[in-house]
Amino acid sequence: MDTPTEVLHRVFGYDSFRAGQQEIIEHVVAGGDALVLMPTGGGKSLCYQIPALVRPGVGVVVSPLIALMQDQVDALRALGVRAGFLNSTQGLDEQQTVAATLLAGELDLLYLAPERLRVESTMRLLEKAKISVFAIDEAHCVAQWGHDFRPDYLALSQLHERFPQIPRIALTATATPATHAEISTRLGLDQARHFVAGFDRPNIHYRITAKSEPKRQLLDFLRTEHDGDAGIVYCLSRASVEKIAEFLVEHGIAAVPYHAGLDAATRAAHQARFLREDGLIVVATIAFGMGIDKPDVRFVAHLDLPKSLEGYYQETGRAGRDGLPATAWMAYGLQDVVQHRRLSLEGDEAHRRRQAHHLDAMLALCETVGCRRVMLLDYFGQKDAEPCGNCDTCQTPPASWDGTVPAQKVLSTVLRLARERRQKFGVGQVVDILLGKTTAKVLQHGHETLTVFGVGAELGNAEWHGVVRQLLSQGLLAVESDYGALVLTDDSAAVLRGQREVLLRRDLAPARSRSGSGSGASKGKTAVELPAAAAPVFERLRAWRAGVAKEQGVPAYVIFHDATLREIATLGPASLGELARVNGVGENKLAKYGPGVLETLAAETSAS
Ligand code: ADP
Ligand code: ZN
């Protein structure tokens, strides 16, 4: 029997375990149950794949991600692992073949859709097989209050009753203590050891920029920093998804839309293209992304504010799973705050309170003058992080300024407008009054006679919007449900009476994104930049990989990750023995692809 470390080297071709993996794997190999909390991209799959390979029998993986099972199985087969799946996409014949292979003991890993376990015949099939471990992926789907709840997951409690001797490992990236507790109860994992991995994703650069012209800002960000890279752009609505995807295509950038309003076939096709092609961008609502384990997603961009830090962290976590530098970029502005404050007024009291709490945490991240990463990690319970040097606020610390007087001007304008019973006014009117603009709407309501009219000449239009945005973020202003009309809050009075200071963040001029990325970002970048001589070799290897992937009908990363190709291009191995030392080249891939790689390298040398 191989040890976990031997399997890591031989099958996966990796040098060493990532944080947490070894402990978890050894615990499960020894027959223990485990509940694993690890960030997206942290390396959860190995935590059940290696035990399945080390222990005798087949590892059964329950996963809701039916559309991805084929790719997961292909990736394992490329490593020489005997893998199969059972789900509703298969015909009866195919299912019978898989069942026969299973019973013959010829499978190392079997992926199962959760609804299968509700079927008695599947349970009986499993009882006849020799099972090494049960893995429950995306385990937060069992949590009923969560947004990913799947009723089929409730059936998973049976596993423990019918297979008490077989270790179970449940995995999730959803971090809150409430989810954690619910998973444990519902799956009967009270005896399980809990493993909580560090939540940091150090290779992700975080940046949140003031939104002025979102489309141009996005285009600029893509062109200056992620030309030709694969990535995801998140938007709130289906309409903006369509609009942004079209806009990118018009500007010569390969992009496809993805949202729940598209028919299933289109969605599947766009997802498949994203997984298979190099450098495609998906513009999507949050309907896209769960379980997408494409390792070379180089950026995740948000054009609208996510609803919660949980959502933000899950979505941005899809970038840079391969450990190479990646960017989490967001453009955020006043309208985002207004819109979300309004949304958080919907529903019952408890729901509203929860929404407001989530939004406050999200806004605090946007407005912070401190390290973004420290704040994120703190939120997820890791209290001792140091400023990271790889986020925008670390690299270009924003100044804060005493905004008490401007805040008072805004609040007293809102106070005066609130006295008008017949109509409510939004941000635009407040700012026009402060700037002393005699617009039609100002004249119509006689607002030029207010004492606050024209008292705001010290700031410009954009700056006043920034002040209002931050007052909303800090809860010193609120919006009313219907029109986004501004109203005072309980805390406003103290500011108006001069009993409370207001500290504001000075927005960096909405500059081109290039200037936003300081020296640290370029430092991060050097890790991806190849030595000049290796760049053409890397391109050759990519072209070779694209050919092989196409021939075999699998995504390119199933052959080798970018990180592996970069290492090969840089080291230039001259023999299979040297190639075997590259991270990501295991036994099976060496045999299967090694000669092709060496030939590609040799062709390059003779050509140059
Ligand atoms: P997640 O936790 O999101 O499920 P995955 O299991 O998909 O993460 O792993 C993310 C990426 O990291 C994958 O591409 C995987 O091959 C790679 N990876 C995992 N463990 C290691 C390791 N010990 N050494 C190198 N790469 C690893
Ligand atoms: Zn930082």
Structural shape: globular
- The CATH topology annotation of the largest domain reads as Rossmann fold
CATH superfamily of the largest domain: P-loop containing nucleotide triphosphate hydrolases
Order of strands, widest sheet = 3-4-2-5-6-1-7
Domain tally: 4
Mean pLDDT: 89
> Biggest sheet, in brief?
7 strands, parallel
CATH architecture of the largest domain: 3-Layer(aba) Sandwich
Uncertain segments: 510-527
Task: Specify the CATH class of the largest domain.
Answer: Alpha Beta
Which ligands occur here? Answer: adenosine-5'-diphosphate, zinc ion
Which percent band covers the strand fraction? 5-15%
- Helix-and-strand structural type: alpha/beta
Oligomeric nature of the chains: single chain
**If you compute it from the alpha carbons, what radius of gyration comes out, rounded to the nearest whole angstrom?**
27 Å
Question: Percent range for helical residues?
Answer: 40-55%
**Total count of helical runs of at least 4 residues:** 28
Count of DSSP strands:
17
Distance between the termini: 47 Å
